[in-house]
Amino acid sequence: MAYETVLYEVNDRIGTVTINRPDKMNALNQQVLRDLSAAMEEAGRDDAVGVVVLTGAGEKAFAAGADIGELAELDPLGAIALARRGQALTRRMEQLGKPVLAAVNGFALGGGCELAMACTLRVAADTAKLGQPEVNLGIIPGYGGTQRLARLVGKGRALDIILTGRMVGAKEALGIGLVDRVAPAAELAAAVRELAGTLLQKGPAALRFSMEAVDGGLERGMAEALEWEAQLFGLVASTADMKEGLTAFLEKRKPAFGGK
Ligand code: COA
């Protein structure tokens, strides 16, 4: 389907969603939120898509945050509704059931950083800059940033980044776990394709249950989290992918996973 502010294409089982407002640093206005939600749904539903990539159009920005012009018009109830919309989108991405890779091609600020953090893994260009600069505008992160940043990099580092509003370069982001890989800007797309290719060789059900085990476990205490893992381990044992993976190993051949 075609969208107003987002490009969506599928190649080699990779569904690429590109935020397409390069003249506005891919700022996330309400239309972008709607289009991103719809494109993520489409990618999630499409059996031909095994891995989703999220990136920004142009060379400067992944997304430079919520649209500041729209923020200026908000009243308190509108602000709560907007935060809930952004949170619903980021939560949906996290629970899409297939890996979503952020190709962070430039500024990922505010809502842009929050979108990247909701992705399963983040690959950044060495020129990328991430951050939560909301305090500079007298507001706070509202699309899950206060929660996901603390979970990704720890409370102290999250508060350092949020309270100073400073930009974090790719190298520092890699060191603190805010991004998972860094590539030279000109090689970012190839690095993301390579990572996607690796994931596409795995059993889709095993990827899905692995993501659910880690995410769901983080919301539980240790005893309950281990039981959650055991239950998912049991569910995996009901899949044809498990049978195929184990049989292929024993027969010394490559597995052909069907995702069932
Ligand atoms: N919302 C709306 N418009 C935005 C935007 C945002 N979050 N970020 C950038 N833009 C617009 C600018 O207003 C400008 O529009 P114009 O050409 O019509 O004047 C255009 O995008 C280019 O941005 P500009 O600031 O000129 O580019 P730059 O290279 O000098 O700086 C940034 C880039 C990202 C450092 C700067 O745009 C910035 O600080 N943006 C806001 C980041 C932010 O605070 N995000 C959190 C929002 S909660």
Describe the structure.
By secondary structure, the chain is α/β, with parallel strands linked by helices. The chain has two domains: 6-200, 2-enoyl-CoA Hydratase, Chain A, domain 1; 204-250, Lyase 2-enoyl-coa Hydratase, Chain  A, domain 2. The protein has eleven helices and ten strands. It has helices at residues 30-45, 68-71, 76-94, 111-118, 145-153, 155-164, 170-176, 188-200, 204-218, 222-236, 240-250, and strands spanning 6-11, 14-19, 51-56, 61-63, 100-104, 107-109, 121-125, 129-131, 168-169, 181-183. The strands form two sheets. Strands 1-2-3-5-7-10 form a six-stranded mixed β-sheet, with helices on both faces. A hairpin with a 2-residue loop joins strand 1 (6-11) and strand 2. The mean pLDDT is 97. The site of coenzyme A has 15 residues, from helix 2 and strand 6.
Features:
single chain, 260 residues, alpha/beta, 2-enoyl-CoA Hydratase, Chain A, domain 1, Lyase 2-enoyl-coa Hydratase, Chain  A, domain 2, six-stranded mixed beta sheet, four-stranded mixed beta sheet, 11 helices, 10 strands, binds coenzyme A
Please render the helix and strand layout as text.
Elements: E1 6-11, E2 14-19, H1 30-45, E3 51-56, E4 61-63, H2 68-71, H3 76-94, E5 100-104, E6 107-109, H4 111-118, E7 121-125, E8 129-131, H5 145-153, H6 155-164, E9 168-169, H7 170-176, E10 181-183, H8 188-200, H9 204-218, H10 222-236, H11 240-250
At a glance:
The protein has eleven helices and ten strands. The protein is of the alpha/beta class. The site of coenzyme A (COA) has 15 residues, from α2 and β6.
